[in-house]
Amino acid sequence: MELWAVITVAAAFLQNLRSYLQRRLTGKLSVNGASFVRFIYALPFAAIYIGLIATTIELPEPDFEFFFYCLVGGVAQILATMALVASLVGSNFAVGTALSKTETLQAALFGFLLLGETLTMPMWLGVVISFVGVLMLSGLLSGKAPLKSLVSGDRGVILGLLAGTGFAISAVAFRGASLSLPEGEPMVRAAMTLVVSLVLQVSSMGSFLRFTEPHEMGRVWQQRKIGVLVGLAGACASAGWFTAMTLTQAALVRAVGQVELLFTFITAVWILRERVTSQEIIGAVLILCGILLLI
User: Fold this and answer.
1) Which residue of 66, 82, 99, 158 shows the fewest CB atoms closer than 10 Å?
2) Residue 17: how many CA atoms within 13 Å on its side-chain side?
């Protein structure tokens, strides 16, 4: 297995852990407050990470292009998160979740438009197969209600697609930021991109919360015990994502990153003892087959 794939699988596992920890904040913080936690508490760990790197390796000097890509990626990630949360409200949970996963297909498109990168036919086949697996595992292809929502183009569909677009743009932009640095190993480039992006995200989202939900900042501080764990897991996951996307195309990383759904599936079956359908099993197998084609 190639290095970028190993790093991606590890990042997906850590992201799954971060999501689990972040769910413990449900009811204690607003949606935006809980989203802000992942950025504000991850920043100190990211700063320590790049500080350790800087003690032995000289950091590359960023330029305007680097900061521009970081800004685009950071804002796109924030907006995508908001769109995803909004798409999950109501009866369209499966639709919103599944369509947000179109980020893999959209990342291939934006990778071509912004960075001039293309995928080979086997890569495209792996991406498409894994995406069909996501649709089956999420339940979008079962029953008439999800399909009706998909055809009618309702709110959940639009927001889910927008979330996928935002995540795709952010992934490609973060890769563009790393590649724009004039020199440095992939780990160094990724670390710089991570820290600068987090600074921009904390600044922008912190200002947004300060004016829209002024009391939420205090609640975020009150939840610092869980927040620190969320930040640690999130910083480690992001460092993995950014390093993998420095090594190879964002579309491939996001496609292999769908292994996170397999972790959730395994947890549901073996730990929570939940009953699964044959369609969910087929979906999990398709995701695995698609990932194997990519690596």
Assistant:
1) 158
2) 17
